[in-house]
Specification:
Helix content is about 50%, strand content about 5%. The chain is mainly alpha-helical and about 350 residues long. It holds the Pfam family Peptidase_A24.
Length: about 350
């Protein structure tokens, strides 16, 4: 009865991971956040199928046992620690590392699927390398192709800059609704600008909107304007309630009056209350309160430094269009690498062969 199936039962059950990986890839693009709970059932399924395949191979013959044991030992003993090391050194996000760990359990050995006269994957069915490593290699190749596509897109649009393979220009008003990093500073281009999630954390911490930042940059550079009771910075997600001004409650009348006062006092910009000139931004001990913000929060705000934050705020306060990189979450190339591996096989091994 089992022989009439297009694949073994464990291999068919492994295909359940495909729609899950498609969903988390889309979720990661939209929100940059994947719930950890999604990996638990996939990991449990991988462990159960691993035990199932191991028992079948062990009770078959020596060749079947060796064909199972060698790639499985490599997958669990090498790919799993590799995922952890990539996460430890910052090469992977937490979700990327968990995804690779799950793949190491789910796909240690190359699966086999018969569709008519075709057998998938098309190549590499008898190799002793773990199939999870083939998925990772394919994902890396897909990831390397993305900058090439971005570079061509920008070149066709006439945007020839050193950072053309990494992003594109966008209207500054779109920035609060984007994930990624700025590729621009006050001095030019950069490969590691302000993280946009860190920007949202900072604005919520101060109780500001992006419109506030654009409207009063000179005043807000002064660290004396920091709130006495900052708001929780959240994690920088886009879909979060607006910040509460100055850590207090929002009063519509006060907001209107404040806006009117600001509009009527434009001639006083640059003059302190006692009539003396206000210090220039460069004279502040902590322009924008960047140090105060980073010192007060838990964690590192996605690796953002004080200089990154100040530079990014200066750019966003003055420019109408900015270069930014959306950054492609590695779950997307990893998912595409899984599809390529299931359909074709290990592209790297095929090219080398």
């Amino acid at each position: 009865m089992l022989s009439s199936l297009p694949a073994s039962v464990p291999d068919l059950l492994r295909l359940l991971a495909v729609p899950v990986f498609a969903w988390v890839a889309v979720l990661d693009v939209r929100t940059r956040r994947v719930p950890s709970a999604v990996w638990i059932p996939l990991g449990a399924l991988g462990a159960a199928l691993l035990a199932w395949d191991g028992w079948v191979a062990y009770t078959a013959d020596l060749h079947a046992w060796q064909s199972f044991l060698i790639p499985t030992a490599f997958s669990v003993g090498f790919v799993v620690p590799l995922a952890y090391l990539f996460w430890w050194f910052g090469g992977f996000g937490g979700a990327d590392a968990k995804a690779l760990l799950v793949l190491a359990l789910l796909f240690p050995v190359t699966p086999s699927y018969a569709v008519g006269d075709w057998m998938f994957p098309l190549v590499g069915g008898d190799q002793l390398l773990p199939f999870s490593l083939a998925i990772l290699g394919n994902g890396v190749l897909v990831g390397l192709a993305i900058p090439v596509a971005l570079g061509l897109r920008n070149a066709l649009a006439g945007r020839l800059t050193p950072i053309a393979p990494l992003g594109w220009p966008t209207a500054v008003d779109h920035v609060p609704h984007r994930h990624g990093k700025l590729l621009q500073t006050t001095d030019g281009y950069t490969l590691s600008g302000l993280d946009l999630d860190a920007l949202r954390m900072y604005l919520r911490w101060r109780g500001l909107t992006f419109a506030d930042l654009r409207a009063e940059p000179e005043r807000l550079r002064d660290p004396e304007t920091l709130p006495a009771e900052p708001n929780p910075p959240t994690d920088g997600a886009i879909d979060v309630d607006p910040p509460v001004a100055d850590g207090g409650t929002v009063d519509a009348d006060e907001t209107t009056a404040s806006a009117a006062a600001t509009d009527g006092d434009e001639a006083d910009v640059g003059v302190s209350i006692d009539g003396d000139p206000k210090p220039a931004a460069d004279d502040f001990d902590d322009p924008w309160g960047a140090d105060a913000f980073l010192d007060s929060i838990e964690g590192t705000a996605y690796g953002t430094s004080s200089e990154d934050l100040r530079n990014g705020l200066d750019v966003l306060a003055t420019e109408d269009r900015v270069w930014y990189s959306p950054g492609t979450p590695f779950l997307v190339p990893l998912f595409l690498g899984l599809l390529v591996a299931l359909g074709y096989g290990d592209v790297l091994v095929s090219l080398m062969g």
